[in-house]
Amino acid sequence: MEQSSHYITICSDSIGDTAEAVVQAVIHQFQNQRVTIRRYGNVRHEDELRRLMEETAQLQGFVAYTLVQPELREMIREEAVRLDLRIVDIMGPMMQAFIDTFNDAPQARPGLLHQLDENYFRRIEAIEFTVACDDGRDLGAMLKADIVLLGMSRTSKTPLSIFLAHRGKKVVNYPVVPEIAPPQQLLSLPPSRIIGLTTEPEYMLKIRSERLRMLGLPAGSQYASLERIHEEMEYAAALFKKLGCPVIDITDKAIEETAGIIMGHL
């Protein structure tokens, strides 16, 4: 197994996405680090827990966990001592703060966050809506959307849309191109439901040049020229001003950060 990578094991008695979200947020703070995430969900038995702990110890990594069952929480601490393995309790401090402050006790039932409740079905509906409306494929859907994202090519509209959909928001993203007039549906929306995305020209040049390289296309394309980028940005800025919508500069921002700003606007 390749030893040049660092290994982080995620252990959860639910699906593990809470722990992975925290781990990913931390990884983004470190540059030039090769990290392999090993995710184990629905861990309910001691032999499963013991096995993943021993594997992680052999890889010289650490374990981030979200366990709510008392017996598993106790066992992972014991195994950490036995194996001299670092563990990170993602939920424990928050649960203890809740207990100490509000004098309440947890239910200790795995997976409560992901029960098939109304919020779950709303997220699924939002994801299906957003995928169907990617890149302006359904202009009529703008009138039903919670958020309409506008931006020139390579302003992270699609991944940002999917991220927001997982937060239960129906999103339409629409590409801003000088040669194409904005649709009437867009002009009829209230500014509060529209978000404009922009970036620094040099940052966009770097992203587009890399995109052409990955596709095996010549670097001298107009698509990745500063002249074309400035033209698109000027058109987009004029459109955003006409619509009166909030504008977010995504330069060097993670998807999560931009999404947080958008949710703040809402």
TrEMBL record:
InterPro entries for the chain: Kinase-pyrophosphorylase, PPDK_reg
UniProt catalytic activity: N(tele)-phospho-L-histidyl/L-threonyl-[pyruvate, phosphate dikinase] + ADP = N(tele)-phospho-L-histidyl/O-phospho-L-threonyl-[pyruvate, phosphate dikinase] + AMP + H(+); N(tele)-phospho-L-histidyl/O-phospho-L-threonyl-[pyruvate, phosphate dikinase] + phosphate + H(+) = N(tele)-phospho-L-histidyl/L-threonyl-[pyruvate, phosphate dikinase] + diphosphate
EC number assigned by the record: 2.7.11.32, 2.7.4.27
Top-level taxon of origin: Bacteria
Family matches, as Pfam families: Kinase-PPPase
Residues that, per the record, bind ADP: 151-158
This protein's UniProt keywords: Kinase, Nucleotide-binding, Serine/threonine-protein kinase, Transferase
One function term, GO molecular function aspect: phosphotransferase activity, phosphate group as acceptor
Enzyme class: transferase
PANTHER family: PYRUVATE, PHOSPHATE DIKINASE REGULATORY PROTEIN 1, CHLOROPLASTIC (PTHR31756:SF3)
Its job: Bifunctional serine/threonine kinase and phosphorylase involved in the regulation of the pyruvate, phosphate dikinase (PPDK) by catalyzing its phosphorylation/dephosphorylation.
Membership in a protein family: Belongs to the pyruvate, phosphate/water dikinase regulatory protein family. PDRP subfamily.
NCBIfam families cross-referenced by the UniProt entry: PRK05339.1
HAMAP family to which the protein is assigned, alphabetical: PDRP
The protein's name: Putative pyruvate, phosphate dikinase regulatory protein
Organism, as annotated: Paenibacillus typhae
Lineage per the UniProt record: Bacteria, Bacillati, Bacillota, Bacilli, Bacillales
